[in-house]
Amino acid sequence: MKQSRQALSLVVASLLCSTGAAEVYKWVDPKGETHYSERKPVDGTEVETMTPWTGAAPVERQTLKARIAASDKQRAEREKQDKRDRESKADADKIKHNCEQANIRAASLERARVNKVNVDGTLSRMPEEWRQEQMAEARAAVEKYCI
Question: What are the residue boundaries of the structural domains of the chain, listed by start?
Fold first, then answer.
């Protein structure tokens, strides 16, 4: 008797978990035994119709799909924002580097004597006019990059 109940429970569980079954019928035969089946009994016995639970209701599935779509949208927005932040940081780093280089250039031109290295390795002094032009360009670069 105990084994038959276990077998019956197993059959009921498998029927209830079956994704292909739309309805399950329950009835009691004249001997008093309860039966479960996907088909109605042919002898006209009174049956109880049971709809097996197959998971989340369709409305819940739609909600889950909507939540997944919202999550995907948020992830895409975060990725875009992260990309903008990285680009902004790269731009700021580039401006900082340019400022440092402009300051170095301006400081090197502050000396009264500016020499250049010739092709043969000898040094020659640059004319004062050239130094003044270069200083003006260096100051303009400092003003541009060192905000």
Answer: 2-50, 58-145
